[in-house]
């Protein structure tokens, strides 16, 4: 019986010839990631083990990004705990404020993650790195603590769902975000629970590496264990000057077994908006007939904080003004993205339009800071979750979209297609 | 210990980790802070209205969303002895086992449990008894490997023997 990419990577890291869905395995980890929220909890657990050193200082990565730059005294304490541990363990990949970025934008950009790897992170959006052909999944702090000590973790081998992406987009505003929102709308927030979402098909050639990272990033929003993409020329071009060292390209066998197949026709796809309070409450932007007035527009996060996202938003904002009643908050994912935005005049465009251009942080996405919503307020956001109270008050609302819609909506003051501001 | 008995507190489908413990409280991971704000927007004053040992009964996809281990920690700190659900989101499932919060997947039983029912659960055999309704259910039994983690109390105790 053939194996999927996911099964091959898991088998290779478990030292097994083959695995099948349902098998419980112990696998070696290539990267073990945590942040300023989950890291301190992992460190406290790690301290309970009879070991002093992490299994490999090059493979344990820590990024203070959620409540950093420190949002309050308690957050400062947590960041300090992370920093002190990173120093004590002499971690190669610890990113201080000023060098850090939103972790899932940062690791691919810095070449820390690459094809064929097995990555775990105490952050649910760790599934992002599947865009590079890695097996990558979110776990909890205790899992990270154990893996920091042993270099291994346990998995139940997941079934795989095959998502066949076909044709070329016709709508100029369709991006990776719309592919994943549409898919979640179709299969539901638990449609891929415990399973791998494997993206395939000739349509992938029209989805950039930034777009693929957006798609893999939100695999968790369908309940998936991981999202994964084949390694093609776009992948190789992306990692060429970033990823150091050897990597292994795994391909799914033609006779690999899938639990389900889903087709997405890019030619038919339109920009999507997820209504409160689940990412699966999706509608095509062209089917929204009512005026949905917004108070805030957020462009950024591990989902849409990459350069392409900034560029798309800037092209719409250029020469326009943000509606008087709206706060536009643009947050580049990393310092490199930030610098590129400075160079290309994107920072000027955002500021001239009347928006905020922030230093990298997860900030408002999880209701941390830098754009919290008051009671009854409503935001359009390029982030990943629109759960009750996610961005602030329990009676506030978050609508999810791609950067083009978020930028257009900031101008009109209501949820709008980019066509309305052309 | 694998036997639990307590009163049922029911919640719906897709209860996410932000509802279990909102991110704004994650700047202080102490048990006290977690306990105080656990499920506060789902059941008013949750931590104070439940009795230690009570059982949380949820619909499908319980614990979806974030990887925050603070979610099962908060439920445990609030005094809940075991969580019964139609299904669990994957990371929550792992985290609950890893920190030693017993969980039971029981799609058939959940619909027939009303708020306030007295439940008896044996996590080891998978037997769930609704004492109030006089009905017994067989629920999913954990694989041996996971039973070993549960027997050791949490993942850390399980791993302790393996660290070089």
Rg of chain A, rounded, reads 20 Å
| Average pLDDT metric of chain B | 94
Structural class of chain A, by secondary structure, is: alpha/beta
Question: How many individual domains of chain A?
Answer: 2
Say what the CATH topology of the largest domain in chain A is. Aconitase, domain 3
Widest β-sheet, arrangement of strands of chain A: 4-3-2-5-6
Helix-strand pattern of chain B, N to C?
A: EHHHEHEHEHEEEHH
* Helix proportion of chain A: 25-40%
Number of helices of chain A: 13
Summarize the main sheet of chain A. 5 strands, parallel
Which sheet architecture does the biggest sheet of chain B show? Answer: 7 strands, mixed
Q: Span from first to last CA of chain A? A: 53 Å
* Overall shape of chain A: globular
Please characterize this protein's 3D structure.
The complex is a heterodimer of chains A (422) and B (164). Chain A has helices at residues 5-14, 38-46, 73-88, 103-109, 141-150, 176-187, 209-217, 233-239, 301-304, 307-317, 335-343, 346-353, 403-412, and strands at residues 24-28, 31-35, 60-63, 93-94, 118-121, 135-138, 152-156, 160-166, 196-200, 226-228, 260-265, 272-274, 282-284, 296-299, 327-330, 356-357, 378-381, 397-400. With 422 residues, chain A is of the alpha/beta class. In chain A, the strands form 5 sheets. Chain A has a 5-stranded parallel beta sheet with strand order 4-3-2-5-6. A 5-stranded parallel beta sheet of chain A has the order 16-15-14-17-18. In chain A, strand 8, helix 6 and strand 9 form a beta-alpha-beta unit. In chain A, helix 6 runs parallel beside helix 7 (209-217) and helix 10 (307-317) packs parallel to helix 13 (403-412). The longest helix of chain A is centred in the first third of the chain and has 16 residues, at 73-88. The radius of gyration of chain A is 20 Å and the shape is globular. Chain B contains 8 helices and 7 strands.
């Amino acid at each position: 019986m053939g194996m999927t990419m996911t099964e091959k990577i898991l088998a290779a890291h478990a030292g097994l010839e083959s695995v099948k869905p349902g098998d419980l395995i112990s696998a070696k980890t290539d990267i073990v990631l945590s942040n300023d929220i989950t890291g301190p909890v992992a460190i406290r657990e790690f301290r309970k083990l009879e070991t002093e050193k992490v299994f490999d200082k090059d493979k344990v990565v820590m990024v203070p990004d959620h409540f950093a730059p420190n949002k309050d005294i308690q957050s400062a304490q947590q960041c300090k705990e992370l920093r002190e541990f990173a120093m004590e363990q002499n971690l190669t990949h610890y990113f201080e404020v000023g060098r850090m970025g939103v972790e899932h934008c940062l690791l691919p950009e810095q070449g820390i993650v690459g094809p064929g790897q097995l990555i775990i992170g105490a952050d649910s959006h760790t599934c992002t790195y599947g865009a590079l052909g890695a097996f990558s999944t979110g776990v909890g702090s205790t899992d990270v603590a154990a893996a920091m000590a042993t270099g291994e973790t346990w998995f139940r081998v997941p079934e795989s769902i095959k998502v066949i992406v076909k044709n070329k987009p016709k709508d100029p505003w369709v991006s990776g975000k719309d592919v994943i929102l549409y898919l979640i709308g179709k299969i539901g927030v638990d449609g891929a629970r415990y399973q791998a979402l494997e993206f395939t098909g000739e349509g992938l050639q029209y989805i950039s590496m930034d777009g693929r990272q957006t798609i893999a990033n939100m695999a968790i929003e369908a309940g998936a264990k991981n999202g994964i993409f084949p390694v093609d020329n776009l992948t190789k071009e992306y990692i060429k000057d970033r990823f150091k060292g050897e990597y292994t390209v795994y391909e799914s066998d033609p006779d690999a077994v899938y639990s389900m197949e889903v087709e997405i026709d890019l030619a038919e796809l339109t920009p999507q908006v997820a209504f409160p309070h689940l990412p699966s409450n999706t509608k095509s932007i062209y089917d929204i007939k009512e005026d949905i007035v917004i108070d805030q527009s957020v462009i950024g996060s591990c989902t849409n904080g990459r350069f392409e996202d900034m560029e798309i938003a800037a092209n719409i904002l250029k020469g326009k003004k943000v509606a008087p009643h709206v706060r536009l908050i643009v947050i580049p994912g990393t310092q490199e993205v930030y610098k590129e935005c400075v160079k290309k005049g994107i920072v000027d465009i955002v500021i001239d339009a009347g928006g905020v251009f922030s230093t990298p942080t997860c900030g408002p996405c999880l209701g941390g800071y830098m754009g919290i919503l008051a009671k009854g307020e409503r935001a359009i956001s390029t982030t990943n979750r629109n759960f009750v109270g996610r961005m602030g008050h329990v009676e506030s609302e978050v609508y999810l979209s791609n950067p083009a819609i978020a930028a257009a909506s900031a101008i009109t003051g209501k949820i709008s297609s980019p066509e309305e501001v052309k | 210990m694998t036997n639990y008995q307590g009163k049922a507190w029911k919640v719906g489908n897709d209860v996410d980790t932000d509802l279990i413990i909102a991110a704004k409280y994650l700047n202080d991971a102490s048990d006290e802070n977690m306990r105080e704000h656990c499920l506060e927007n789902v059941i008013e004053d949750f931590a104070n209205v439940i009795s230690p040992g009570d059982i949380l009964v949820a619909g499908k996809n319980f614990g979806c969303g974030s990887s925050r281990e603070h979610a099962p920690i908060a439920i445990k700190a609030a005094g809940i002895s075991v969580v019964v659900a139609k299904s669990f989101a994957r990371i929550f499932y792992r985290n609950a086992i890893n920190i030693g919060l017993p969980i039971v997947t029981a799609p058939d039983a959940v619909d027939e449990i009303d708020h306030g029912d007295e439940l008896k659960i044996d996590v080891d055999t998978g037997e769930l008894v609704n004492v109030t309704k006089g009905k017994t259910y067989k629920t999913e039994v954990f694989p041996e490997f996971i039973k070993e983690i549960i027997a050791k109390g949490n993942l850390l105790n399980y791993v302790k023997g393996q660290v070089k």
